[in-house]
Amino acid sequence: MSLFCRVIQPADLEEIMAFENKKMIEAYADEMERNIQSWNARWRKEALDHYLPLGWSFLARHEDTPSEFSEEGLLAGYFIAQPMLFLDGQTQSLWIEHLSYASLKARDELCELGYKLAREKHFQRVFFPNSSGIMNSVRLFKPETWQPQVICLKTTKA
Predict the structure, then answer these.
(1) Where are the domains positioned within the chain?
(2) What is the 8-class DSSP label of residue 53?
C-alpha cells in the first residue's frame, strides 16, 4: 500500500474530525466521556483552525484505498505543526503539536517527513509529542527528551 503525503488544506478539516471522532469511539464507549476528552484534544476544531492556514501541517493517504471524503485515497494519518522562532536558544524550530495515525507505516512516514521538512528549511530542531510509538519512528535521528512530553531532534550538525 503506497502512501501519498501533502499539505493539509481547509477542505480536509471535516475528514480529520471524522478520523479523530472514530478513534475516540474506539477508545471511549461512553459518549459523555468522549465529549469531555474532546474538549482538551490537540485536534479540536479551534486548534485545527489555527494550524491549517499556516501551511506546515501534513497528511498521509493510502492511495489504493477509496475514501468517502477524497478521491486521493483514505486518510492514514496527519500532523499539525508550526514554526517556532527563538525556542530554546535556536533561531528556528518546527513544533509538531499533534501526530495521529491509523497505521505504523503512516506514523513512520509522517515522522520522517517532519524531520526532512525541518532539515530542508534549515531549522535547527524539530519537536515531536512524546506519545506512544513516536520514539520508535525517530530513533534513527537520535532523539532526545526535551521535556517529559516532548522529543527533540537536532536537524543540523551543531
Answers:
(1) 3-154
(2) G
Q: Say how far apart CA 57 and CA 78 lie, in whole Å.
A: 7
Question: 1 pLDDT band (50/70/90 cuts)?
Answer: low
The one-character DSSP state at 140 is: G
User: Cell digits for 41?
Assistant: 484534544
DSSP-derived pairing of the beta strands 125-129 and 150-154 = antiparallel
In sequence order, the β-bridge partners of residue 78 are 59, 100
CATH topology of domain 3-154: Aminopeptidase (3.40.630)
Distance of CA 29 to the CA centre of its chain: 25
Check whether 19 has a pLDDT greater than 90.
Answer: yes
> Among candidates 77, 69, 66, 73, which has minimal Cα distance to 105?
77
pLDDT at 82 over 80: yes
- DSSP string covering 41-52: -TTSHHHHHHHG
Residue 99 has pLDDT above 90, yes or no: yes
Mean pLDDT computed over 143-148: 79
Strand-pairing partners, residue 5, are 60
- β-strands 3-7, 150-154 pairing: unpaired
Higher pLDDT among residues 134 and 104, named by residue: 104
